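Quarterly update, task 2.4: 3-isopropylmalic acid-bound model.
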Amino acid sequence: MQANIVVLPGDGIGPEVTAAAIAVLNEVARRRGHGFAFAEHDIGGIAIDRHDDPLPAATLEACKRADAVLLGAVGGPKWSDPNAKVRPEQGLLALRKGLGLYANLRPVRPHPAALGASPIKAELLQGVDIVVVRELTGGIYFGDKTRTATAASDLCAYSVAEIERVVRSSFRLAERRKGRVTSVDKANVLETSRLWRDVAARIGRVEFPGVELEHQLVDSMAMHLLAKPREYDVIVTENMFGDILTDEASMLAGSLGLLPSASLGDGSIGVYEPIHGSAPDIAGKGVANPYATILSAALLLRHSLDLHDEAGQVEDAVGKALDDRQFTADLGGRLGTAEATQAVLQRL
Ligand code: NAD
Ligand code: IPM
Ligand code: MN
């Protein structure tokens, strides 16, 4: 098949890890006779430097016309002055919003060979297979903000429609998995969470009676996620809780450098990016773990291009590289980004 893929390398280790994923996608295309065309555009800090705008109109337009978007990461100390009028992260938020990508899928499947990299006991990790569905275009990230000399506020707002669509995505996903949804909220304190819980309960009862639904408060969820991760199948939650819980969940897999994500809406276009950031502490050194971005490319093949075989092959190749202990430093190994990428290419 022919596909147009927009690549947004962004900042820090972004360009290093997207280069790795492009190498893998090119190898998939070569072996399977596909034609993938890659077009690079600016987002984040580099876009502020070059265009004074973290999401230039040309970037958003190119993404809208593309079949899929592969993104590295945005942000870094250079653009983190608290008084700056615009930040790189705003570009990413505007991209998600502009493409209507309300459901962010973050799979967490610790690999047997990498269990030693996790601070959690290996016996708790065997068989863990979770997908966190994070709401991505609402909540406190997008509500009105105020700032005066003596106070500040961020509004957290959700509509019924916004909750319904992401909760439905999580139930549909659970139907194809183990049939269990855990809806995470803070309904003992927040009004948005009480609405969230009502809507999730109704969607479950009326539309998905065959799926088991449980509600969990976010604070105890943070604890259960480490204490009994095998109990969970699909976890659905609002924007900020999902952000925090998935960085926590990365420790089940052993590294932030292993967790991919797919941001999806109602159409086939999606943004595919690792859940980690621009890692300024290791940027430019060639040591970043590329596996999360390569696994994000596998999600791109599956969700936007419908290339299910190819997606599985990329995931298997990363799995085999891990089996063979082809580890970057975050996993306790010595490989650099380029060598880890080669390890995947050789096993494709
Ligand atoms: P971070 O995820 O960039 O890094 C956290 C820690 O994990 C660092 O020690 C880093 O070296 C390590 N790490 C992350 N990815 C790694 C990889 N692939 N291989 C090896 N180690 C890896 O989080 P942070 O330091 O809190 O944030 C840095 C910047 O990134 C901030 O500006 C933040 O806003 C931004 N950020 C962007 C995204 C995104 O673009 N999607 C996501 C998270 C954070
Ligand atoms: C992520 C990041 C972003 C978020 C930031 C950079 C805006 O942490 O993708 O997880 O909070 O969504
Ligand atoms: Mn995050």
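Highlight for this quarter: DSSP finds twelve helices and twelve strands in the chain.
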